[in-house]
Write a structure and sequence with these properties.
heterodimer, A: alpha/beta, Glutaredoxin, 7-stranded mixed sheet, elongated, B: mainly alpha, Helicase, Ruva Protein, domain 3, 2 domains, 6 helices, 61% helix, disulfide oxidoreductase activity (chain A)
């Protein structure tokens, strides 16, 4: 009995080791999204291409979409744009853009240089919809189902790996349900 | 070598870095301002983690401070303000997580650690007391032997 008690420190050390090891490799900048399972927050914002045209949550009704938060000033947005072009033109994915805290002129020059993968672009110069969504760093990409409910949020660049492993399964499931 | 004093001087010139928050808000009362300061001190910036939104000058922190101020002006309570930000950014933004099923262990841990430590200390003390009693309780033969030995020691030993 006495002998067994001597193993207690070892057990404690192993326990702490297992607990700490589980944390290694976790990306602390990836936060849970509070919006998952909830509808896209209400908004009234201009269409980037047509200031007369006001957009609201109805842009997400009827079709499964990706909502991509981007801005000309965001370096990673330049990196992921080519892949978004590929998704839109070759995979037939509907992408709605949210131009976040940007200006019309810079946004147009960005699209002029890299192309436009977005079906619709919401113009959010003050970042109000971004704030309601909980955007804390562009680029962010949301999977939104045909009822306008947020299913998933990805923070960071979308590339082949992220699309295949993370977003596509959610996207396909949403398509299956609608 | 003659640069030494200069290097030393430069060492002291390095001033502590402090993030400064630029914007100024107007409050009707001191109490309101204090409430605002408390709120922004216990909300955490989602972008620059490990900073509260009072210290952080990330744009998102500014948006969050604006929202706190705006909601205060609209007469929202502290819980409503924190709740509105948690709805957007998740539990992460709270430095003080609420007590619920997931966090109960976190909250209870200090108490568990203190009670556990007291139990260990109590155990150690009790055990040593027990041993102390046993040691003083010498049998009559042992006592006689001890006295014999002490008596021997007093006499000059034969060498």
């Amino acid at each position: 009995m006495r002998r067994l008690l001597l193993f207690i420190p070892l057990l404690i050390a192993v326990g702490i080791g297992v607990f700490l090891f589980a944390g290694i490799g976790k990306d602390p900048t990836k936060l849970e999204s509070a919006r998952i399972g909830k509808p896209v927050p209400e908004f009234q914002l201009q269409d980037l291409h047509d200031p007369e045209h006001m957009l609201d949550t109805s842009v997400f009704q009827g079709q499964v979409s990706l909502l991509n938060v981007w801005a000309e000033w965001c370096p990673s947005c330049w990196d992921e744009h080519e892949y978004l072009m590929h998704l839109a033109s070759n995979e037939g994915v509907r992408i709605v853009g949210l131009n976040y805290k940007d200006q019309r002129e810079t946004a147009f020059s960005f699209l002029g240089r890299l192309g436009n993968p977005y079906e619709t672009i919401i113009f959010d110069p003050r970042g109000s919809l971004g704030f309601d969504l909980g955007v804390y760093g562009a680029p962010e990409t949301y999977v939104i189902d045909a009822d306008g409910v947020v299913l998933y949020r990805h923070v960071g660049v979308v590339n082949e790996r992220v699309w295949q492993e993370v977003l596509l399964p959610v996207f396909n499931q949403a398509k299956g349900n609608s | 070598m003659r640069f030494y004093p200069l290097l030393l001087a430069m060492l002291f010139v390095v001033s502590p870095l402090r993030a400064e928050v630029m914007e100024v808000y107007d409050f009707d009362t001191r109490a309101e301002e204090q409430r605002y300061q408390n709120l922004i001190a216990e909300l955490r910036c989602p972008k620059c983690q490990n900073q509260n939104i009072a210290d952080s000058n990330a744009p998102i922190s500014k948006d969050m401070r604006d929202e706190v101020y705006l909601m205060m002006q609209q007469g929202a309570s502290n819980d409503e303000i924190v709740g509105a930000l948690v709805d957007r950014f998740g539990e992460f933004v709270q430095y003080k997580p609420p007590v619920d099923k997931r966090t109960i262990f976190l909250w209870a841990f200090p108490a568990i650690a203190v009670i556990g430590g007291l139990l260990i200390v109590a155990g150690v003390v009790m055990r040593s007391r027990k041993q102390g009693q046993q040691e003083t309780a010498l049998s009559p033969e042992e006592k006689a032997r001890v006295e014999q030995m002490l008596a021997d020691k007093d006499q000059p030993s034969e060498r």
